[in-house]
Design a protein that fits this description.
Distance between the termini: 14 Å
Helix content: 10-25%
CATH topology: minor pseudopilin epsh fold
Length: 134
């Protein structure tokens, strides 16, 4: 859960710092997410993934199937009826890539062996809050 919150904040600040849209694409089937540079109105996870600052030459993908995450599962990712969280050039969430329409916000639910958490991203500001569900 901390990793997700940190990465949402990173994507938001990266969008603001570079004055370009950034997105986090959630893949619940693969139990992972990828941080992506948005080019126009297109999201291309394969070609536009950001590089992870924690290591040279690696894509910024977080795979919750790795042992370090202790069995954490992305139960759901619901952002504007989609699975993509997009930040505009000012760091605010928008409804879709290339758009200036404000997002309604959304939430991502993570479940581990001992607890469940909902990470909410507020409309307009992108403020992140965490709620324990158990």
């Amino acid at each position: 859960m901390r990793t997700l919150v940190a990465d949402i904040t990173f994507a938001q600040m990266d969008a603001l710092g570079y004055q370009e849209q950034r997105a986090i694409v959630f893949d619940t089937e693969e139990n992972s997410y990828t941080l992506v540079q948005v080019n126009g109105s297109t999201i291309d996870v394969e070609n536009d993934a950001l590089y992870d600052p924690r290591g040279p030459g690696q894509r910024y993908t977080v795979d919750f199937n790795r042992e370090i995450f202790g069995g954490t599962v992305i139960e759901s990712a619901e952002i504007d009826d989609d699975h993509v969280l997009v930040f505009d050039e000012m760091g605010g969430p928008v409804a879709e890539p290339g758009s200036s329409t404000l997002s309604d916000g959304g939430s991502i639910t993570l479940a581990g062996p001992l607890s469940r958490f909902r990470v909410d991203v507020a409309a307009f500001t992108g403020r992140v809050t965490v709620t324990r569900l158990d």
